[in-house]
Design a protein that fits this description.
The structure is a single chain. The chain is α/β, with parallel strands linked by helices. It has two domains: about 120 residues, 3-Layer(aba) Sandwich (Rossmann fold), CATH 3.40.50; about 120 residues, Hypothetical Protein Tm841, Chain: A,domain 3. Helix content is about 40%, strand content about 25%. It is built from eleven helices and 13 strands. Strands 10-9-8-13-11-12 form a six-stranded mixed beta sheet, sandwiched between helices. The chain has a four-stranded parallel beta sheet with strand order 2-1-6-7, with helices on both faces. A hairpin with a 2-residue loop joins strand 9 and strand 10. The longest helix is centred in the middle third of the chain and has 16 residues. The radius of gyration is 19 Å and the shape is globular. The protein starts with a strand and ends in an 11-residue tail after the last strand.
């Protein structure tokens, strides 16, 4: 295996944390400020602990990406042991991580090639790209080929989230105030999708049962899956996640759909009461959009 190193910000949530001990991976923490106190995600407090703090917070959490200096330090350390660096970042539409990574890379590119990749996603989607990167560095000795493989996977990532609380969406201006007010009055809850790196309100449903049906329908629109996971708002199994697993077990026999708790960096954007699915479409398969 070539000595390429993988670096990601802590917006990444891995469905298989063992990758961190099996491959040369460094996670550089975001900083999350809750009620005036700043924590390094995964260092000063776990993602689970931070989400619990958000549940009782009186102010909107603030997520700060790793600074250019912090990323420069991570790159410099990795370059001492590796010949090139794959640096994966939370969507540039949601975070300064990618921009800061590009600034940091300028300090070292003469001695160590660094590819800064905008994942156009966050949380489990970014974690899936980390997994793709581990496969890429095993499968080729050529750094450019590994970069191309990861960049190609970015285009095959899709996410859909059902959000029960509108507070964060309103305050983050993800949802227009008038639409948020109407949804609050009617009890209709929104879905968010990742589109070109942005969180976009796409549709609404009236009940959790309808939400589960829509999430199942969303996954069923893909011809072939390379990877898929369920995101829930707490570490223990929720009723919606259990329903999704049962439906997926029937519709996709032999495929495992792990349930993963929503990472703090994502929860700080969309709130702590969300259920979603993330899909990495298999390379070469066609996405069915339901209109043809």
């Amino acid at each position: 295996m070539p000595d390429f190193h993988i670096i990601a910000d802590s917006g990444a949530t891995l469905t298989n944390p063992r990758l961190l001990t099996q491959f040369p991976i460094t996670i550089v923490p975001n900083k999350i400020t809750i009620n005036g106190t700043t924590y390094r995600e995964g260092v000063d407090a776990s993602s689970e602990e931070l989400v619990r703090m958000m549940n009782t917070s009186t102010t909107l959490p603030i997520v700060t990406a790793p600074s250019p200096a912090e990323l420069t330090a991570a790159y410099a350390k990795a370059s001492r042991h590796g010949s090139a660096i794959l640096s994966l970042h939370t969507s540039r539409e949601l975070s300064q991580s990618w921009a800061n990574g590009r600034l940091a890379a300028r300090q070292l590119t003469e001695t160590c090639p660094i590819a800064n990749i905008d994942s156009q996603t966050v949380c489990v989607g970014l974690g899936m790209l980390v997994r793709v990167a581990t496969q890429a560095i095993q499968g080729t000795q050529d750094f450019d080929s590994a970069v191309k493989q990861v960049r190609g996977a970015v285009e095959r990532l899709f996410s859909l989230y059902y959000v029960e609380s509108l507070d964060y969406l309103h305050q983050r201006q993800i949802m227009e105030p008038s639409r948020a007010l109407l949804s609050a009055i009617t009890g209709i809850k929104p879905f968010l999708s990742m589109e070109e790196g942005k969180l976009i309100v796409t549709e609404k449903v009236r009940s959790r049962t309808q939400a589960v049906e829509r999430l199942v329908e969303f996954v069923s629109e893909f011809e072939e899956l390379e990877d898929a996971a369920i995101i829930q708002h707490r570490p223990t199994m929720t009723e919606q996640a259990r329903m999704l697993q049962e439906r997926f077990a029937a519709d996709f026999p032999g495929r495992h759909f792990p349930c993963v708790a929503c990472g703090a960096s994502l929860a700080a954007l969309i709130g702590t009461e969300a259920t979603g699915v993330v899909v990495l479409e298999k390379e070469g398969s066609g996405f069915y959009d339901g209109d043809n």
